[in-house]
Amino acid sequence: MPRPLKAIGLMSGTSLDGVDVALIETDGESVAAFGPALTFAYGEDDRALFVAALEAARTLTDRDARPGALAAAEGRLTERHAQALAAFFEQHPVHRDVSVIGFHGQTVLHRPEIRLTIQIGDGPGLARAVRAMVPPPGPNLVYDLRAADVAAGGQGAPLVPVYHRALAHGLSLAGPLLVLNLGGVANITYIDGEADPIACDTGPANALIDDFMQARTGIPLDRDGAAAAAGRVDEAALARLLTHPFFARRPPKSLDRNDFREWVTEHAGLDGMSVADGAATLTALTAACVGAVLPHLPKPPRTLIAAGGGAHNPTLLRFLRARLGVEVMTADAVGWSTDALEAQAFGFLAVRALRGLPLSFPTTTGVPRPITGGVIELPLPAA
Hints:
Elements: E1 5-11, E2 18-26, E3 31-41, H1 44-57, H2 69-91, E4 100-103, E5 106-111, E6 116-120, H3 123-131, E7 140-143, H4 147-151, H5 161-168, E8 177-182, E9 185-191, E10 198-204, H6 206-217, H7 226-229, H8 235-241, H9 261-267, H10 275-293, E11 303-307, H11 314-324, E12 327-330, H12 341-355, E13 375-377
Parallel strand pairs: 1-4, 4-7, 8-11, 11-12
Antiparallel strand pairs: 1-2, 2-3, 5-6, 7-13, 8-9, 9-10
Helix pairs in contact: 1-2, 2-3, 6-10, 8-10, 10-11
């Protein structure tokens, strides 16, 4: 058996809230130990620049192009990741001997139907910054982890299911099990015994709620689901939103952060709702999107484990229980990390990339065959 490697994962998700740094020890097939984790929050200027980059990317067809705000955003994003790593190593100097770092970057456009996915983030630049923080030769750095899957005809997302499967092997819960990541977009992994996991994006999660709250209140989230808890769900608006053809498609399938923006503008009638009612309706949409995928699964899940920022929203968890009719638990409740799970996953995926193991599968992204991925920046040669 290969020995476990010390790996750090870096994640900046579609919620645009900050950089998550998490350390694990893994051989890429199982997890030997969880290490410390840190979140480095973005400032308001950072978030504004990244939102501008999302807008600038909407018409791109060249994944290497960086027009408008994209070049500045890529530089800022790389700098913020370097700062997050520096803070992590300062707090946890014993982990400067890390073997590999998985760098997700920031997705600014995801169009797998034209074999295009763009994650900004300067991998070589971050590798240079890391080498100044740690003893030589320094770790491998693995980045651009989605591109190979999309180039081969896959959806390029979600990539985390192989990590969910590794974690699930340590649980005694009766299956089938559904792992739900509630970031800007929601995605699920369906795990039933030793069968290959089934995965897909299910629809919007925090992105629409955050954008709505930012526009109405100037605060880019509904903290603890308080606004939604005070509101009333517009069931007629929800029914209109659920007629989107995405929900009738079987997995695998994936989304761009902005895919539902125009649809919601056209069909939700948010302008006529109060802040509370709008937040309640969008929160119910997230739960209903997860419910819409259940008929496409082989069997109903027995338990749902929620992770990501949305797992801290008790109103969203309550809506999930009511609309899905299954037990809903948080990742923290089963001994995982609600906040660090996705960053941990990219450390896990980086080790798999080093070993040439598949990151994605026909049942998770629709890729024709299991496929590895990532660009590897090698450590400096020994002097």
